[in-house]
Design goal:
By secondary structure, this protein is an alpha+beta fold. It has a domain at 2-68 and 101-112: hypothetical protein PF0899 fold (2-Layer Sandwich), CATH 3.30.2320.50. The protein is built from two helices and six strands; from the N terminus they run H-E-H-E-E-E-E-E. Helix 2 links the parallel strand 1 and strand 2 (61-67). Helix 1 (2-20) crosses helix 2 (41-51). The longest helix is centred in the N-terminal third of the chain and has 19 residues, at 2-20. The radius of gyration is 17 Å and the shape is elongated. It starts with a helix and ends with a strand. The chain binds zinc ion. Zinc ion (ZN) binds at residues 73, 75-76, 78, 89, 91-92, 94.
Length: 113
């Protein structure tokens, strides 16, 4: 299951951050996840509950924000929204677009004890 590896990646970030701040427990987490990570928020919440058992993040409340994907055209430098099937530049129709966001996994806020 795809979400399990995302949840494990997230847990690693949380463990590093709590250690850095000398916290014993994370209580609330806000994460930003790129649309192109193809991650289902409910599945991720469930997967995180499972992988965080017995860790500093056990029982933490997870709030998930999905970040829309954006691409940039190499030729005309235009930025535009993309999805899984559309990577075309609206200006020149080129497919040389570079994905500038939409694949991120980022912990933006964390409350600790
Ligand atoms: Zn273009």
């Amino acid at each position: 299951m795809h979400e399990v590896s995302i949840a494990q990646g997230l847990l690693k970030i949380v463990e590093d951050e709590t250690k850095k701040h000398g916290a014993s427990r994370a209580t609330r987490l806000h994460v930003r996840i790129g649309e192109l990570s193809a991650c289902v928020p409910d599945s991720l919440t469930f997967a995180f509950e499972v992988v965080s058992k017995g860790t500093v993040a056990e029982g933490a409340e997870l709030s998930i924000e999905i970040v829309p994907a954006r691409g940039r055209c190499d030729k005309c430098d235009v930025e535009f929204d993309v999805d899984d099937t559309m990577f075309l530049c609206p200006q020149c129709g080129g497919i040389a677009a570079e994905i500038i966001c939409g694949k991120e996994l980022e912990l933006t806020e964390m409350e600790v004890d």
